[in-house]
Amino acid sequence: EGSVVPPSGSGEASPGSLTGTEFAGNILATAKGTGYLAGGTFFAFACRFVIALVLARGLGAEGYGLYVLAISAAGLFAGVSMLGIDDAMVRYVAILSGRADRDGLSGTLQLGLVVGVLGGLAMGAGLFVCAGPIAEGLFHEPELARLLRLLSVVVPFLTLSSVLLGTARGFRRMGYAAFAETVVQSVVRMGLLVFL
């Protein structure tokens, strides 16, 4: 009359459990994603070191300081322009792709990209217009205005890169995530050296 407990060696798996093959596949995907992120991070640090070295030698300490201020301002404006869209993309892309809801996924991607691009353009324009008051009124460095105007062009690209990063994370495509977060942003920064 007691309850029958199935033997531990039985081949039947509970509905929510993973088989050995699925578990090994998850481990492999996690390891690959970690490798992509580590490689992208190494590339980003190497690029930043090269950029810092070139700028410090070419611009001097004062010029390099102005560049760091301008990059920080561009990053701040790009962060504000995202309005949390990057985090929302991670959550809703993961949920909708798990449900195989193609219509919902398509709408989410379109909305995220449109809001991200429009927000980036608006904040980039804001940085361009406010470059003079920020440079002179806040930092008392009139030379900073030119750099702020130059980097205002980068704000929409930083915003779009972050939205794409959130999308890639939602799809669990860590290789694309590493590419969007580290490689693209590093290449953009190195491209700016031509204009400095």
Defining key terms:
mainly alpha, 7 helices, disordered N terminus
Protein described:
The model is unreliable at 1-16 (pLDDT under 50). The chain is mostly helical and 196 residues long. The protein is built from seven helices and no strands. Helix content is 80%, strand content 0%. Helix 1 runs parallel beside helix 3 (102-129) and helix 2 (85-98) runs parallel beside helix 6 (155-170). The longest helix is centred in the first third of the chain and has 63 residues, at 20-82.
Short structural description:
By secondary structure, this protein is an all-alpha fold.
Seen as an oligomer or otherwise, the chain set is single chain
Number of E-type strands: 0
What is the tally of helical segments? 7
SSE string: HHHHHHH
Instruction: List segments where confidence is low: pLDDT < 50 over at least 5 consecutive residues.
Output: 1-16
User: What is the CA-CA span between the terminal residues?
Assistant: 84 Å
Shape label: flat
Helix amount: over 70%
In angstroms, what is the radius of gyration? 23 Å
Strand percent estimate: under 5%
